[in-house]
TrEMBL record, chain A:
Required for the export of heme to the periplasm for the biogenesis of c-type cytochromes. The lineage of its organism: Bacteria, Pseudomonadati, Pseudomonadota, Alphaproteobacteria, Hyphomicrobiales. It is a multi-pass membrane protein. One of its GO terms (biological process) is cytochrome c biosynthetic process. Keywords: Cell inner membrane, Cell membrane, Cytochrome c-type biogenesis, Membrane, Transmembrane, Transmembrane helix, Transport. This is Heme exporter protein B.
From TrEMBL, chain B:
One of its GO terms (biological process) is cytochrome complex assembly. The gene is ccmA. Keywords: ATP-binding, Cytochrome c-type biogenesis, Membrane, Nucleotide-binding, Translocase, Transport. The keyword Transport applies. The keyword Protein transport does not apply. InterPro entries: AAA+_ATPase (IPR003593), ABC_transporter-like_ATP-bd (IPR003439), ABC_transptr_haem_export_CcmA (IPR005895), P-loop_NTPase (IPR027417). It comes from Kumtagia ephedrae. Pfam families: ABC_tran. Residues 3-200 form the ABC transporter domain. This is Heme ABC exporter ATP-binding protein CcmA. It comes from the Bacteria. GO terms for molecular function: ATP binding; ATP hydrolysis activity; transmembrane transporter activity.
Length: 220, 200
């Protein structure tokens, strides 16, 4: 399983892996917002955490369509499914998700404080956005894996995945943003929405790979 | 070890492509599946591997401790080579060796046996079609599986590589393995059973 994690990580980082696409898209979304909104610092600070979260959510959806499709095209997916007895397929999916998250989504979370600065978010908000993204984005990847598995046989699966996954990822967005606001605005609490976000991630870490494995087993 | 199929039938996209296929193989046996395009050779192999459900009939396999199901006892070499172009040949094979479990030959030895010795450091993408196929054949050698399911294994191979692959299959059978190959071309399997599809 470690071998699978390392292979997918390598593939993600090497040329053509697509890990950079997400980061550049994230940068583009967040960096253009201030130009569109205008130099109203208070307004930017108010919407900043939400913009960072929306940007990260959309950027992390970008690479998802390749999660299983690349393996299907070169025939590796057949072998991963065949190895079910030795490595339960749901665990294989979980490991692939973790590798995808490490290569393509973790850099988004790491870049978020810098992008938060563009939006005039205060330091506590930057730390909260980083923490909520670290905890919340795995949920998007796990849910996205189920969508990617359903759409694996479709030639233009990316569109389908976004449509399938976006509604299911909304709870993570809501609690991620409200926890971030909780760290800045005084009456709103930080901890309860943050813990619910953790729960969403843990829940989808179980349900997402199981659903994806079931879909992959019946892919053709 | 024994692998047998009784009155197996398979369908693809709702169309029945073959029915009433039966065979029985013991350790050391080989079966050559031949027939025109669309006669269901690949479908049969995918059904045996468990990648597709059978439309009817049944498959039986004597489970052993290390290979509890038929799928876990199979090496499947399909039309695609299951190798990543962004990785080197050795990285690809090393991954499959670790992932598949029950390791057999070290990667360098396996490459030597398919005539790719010393090319392990090259990115998989720069190999020629025949070399890519040979690297995929090397995958059969890095991990032990008693049953080899080969779908057009010699596609793209030159005569020398074909002969070398014939020897590898013979060696696998001498060690008590089973080979099922779907092909148009002669595979050089001595004493192999023959199953002609599409003549019902």
């Amino acid at each position: 399983m470690l071998a699978l994690f390392l292979r997918d990580l390598r593939l993600g980082i090497r040329a053509g892996g697509g890990a950079l696409t997400g980061i550049v898209f994230f940068l583009a979304v967040v960096a253009t917002i201030p130009f569109g909104i205008g130099p109203d610092l208070d307004l930017l600070a108010r919407i900043g955490p939400a913009i960072v979260w929306i940007g990260a959510l959309l950027a992390s959806l970008l690479g998802l369509d390749r999660l299983f499709q690349a393996d299907r095209e070169d025939g590796s997916l057949d072998l991963l499914v065949l190895a079910d007895e030795r490595h339960m397929l749901a665990l294989t999916v979980l490991v692939k998700c973790l590798a995808h998250w490490t290569a393509s989504v973790l850099p988004l979370a790491v870049a978020s404080p810098l992008l938060g600065l563009f939006m005039n978010v205060e330091p506590a908000g930057l730390a909260a956005a980083l923490a909520t993204l670290l905890v919340g984005t795995p949920a998007i990847t796990f849910i996205g894996a189920a969508g990617a598995a359903v759409a694996v046989a479709l030639p233009r699966g990316g569109l389908m995945i976004s449509v399938l996954v976006l509604p299911l990822a909304i709870p993570a967005l809501i609690f991620g943003v409200s926890a971030t606001y909780g760290a800045i605005a005084d009456p709103a609490p930080f901890l309860p929405p943050f813990l619910i976000l953790c729960a969403i991630t843990l829940f989808s870490a179980v349900v997402g790979p199981l659903a994806a494995a079931a879909a992959l087993r019946h892919a053709d | 070890m024994r692998l047998s199929a009784e009155e197996l039938s398979g369908e693809r996209g709702g169309e029945m492509v073959f029915s009433d296929v039966s065979f029985a193989l013991c350790a050391g046996d080989a079966l050559v599946v031949s027939g025109p395009n669309g006669s269901g050779k690949s479908t049969l192999l995918r059904i045996v591997a468990g990648l597709l459900p059978a439309a009817g009939g049944r498959l039986s396999f004597d489970a052993t401790e290390s290979f509890p199901t038929l799928a876990s006892a199979c090496h499947y070499l399909g039309h695609q080579n299951a190798m990543k172009t962004a990785l080197t040949v050795a990285e690809n094979l090393g991954f499959w060796r670790d992932f598949l479990g029950t390791p057999l030959n070290p990667v360098d030895d396996a490459l030597e046996q398919v005539g790719l010795g010393g090319l392990g450091h090259l990115p998989y993408a720069v190999l020629s079609t025949g070399q890519k196929r040979r690297a995929a054949i090397a995958r059969l050698l890095v991990a032990h599986r008693p049953v080899w399911l080969l779908d057009e294994p010699t596609a793209g191979l030159d005569a020398a590589s074909e002969a070398r692959f014939g020897e590898l299959m013979a060696a696998h059978r001498r060690d008590g393995g089973i080979v099922i190959g779907a092909t148009h071309l002669p595979l050089g399997l001595e004493g192999a059973g023959e199953l002609r599809m599409g003549e019902t």
